[in-house]
Amino acid sequence: MSNTAELYPVPPGFAGPTTIGASEYEREYARSVQDPDGFWGDAAKRLDWFKPPTKIRNVSYDLADFRIRWFEDGELNASVNCLDRHLATRGDKTALIWEGDSPDTEALRISYRDLHARVCRLANALRNLGVGKGDRVTIYLPMIVEAAVAMLACARIGAVHCVVFGGFSPNSIADRVSDCGSKLIITADEGLRGGKRVALKANVDAALKLPGTNTVETVLVVRHTGGAVDMQMPRDRWYDAVVDGQPDTCEPERMNAEDPLFILYTSGSTGKPKGVLHTTGGYLLFASYTHEAVFDLRDEDVYWCTADVGWVTGHSYIVYGPLANAATSLIFEGVPNYPDVSRFWNVIDKHQVTIFYTAPTAIRALMREGEAAVKKTSRSSLRLLGSVGEPINPEAWRWYYEVVGDSRCPIVDTWWQTETGGILISPLPGAIATKPGSATLPFFGVQPALVDADGTVLEGAAAGNLVITDSWPGQMRSVYGDHQRFIDTYFKAYPGSYFTGDGCRRDEDGYYWITGRVDDVINVSGHRIGTAELESALVLHAKVAEAAVVGFPHDIKGQGIYAYVTLKSGEEYSEALRTELVAHVRREIGPTASPDHIQWAPGLPKTRSGKIMRRILRKIAENAPDQLGDTSTLADPSVVDSLVKERYIPN
Ligand code: WTA
Question: Any idea where the AMP-dependent synthetase/ligase domain is (predicted)?
Answer without folding.
Answer: 84-469
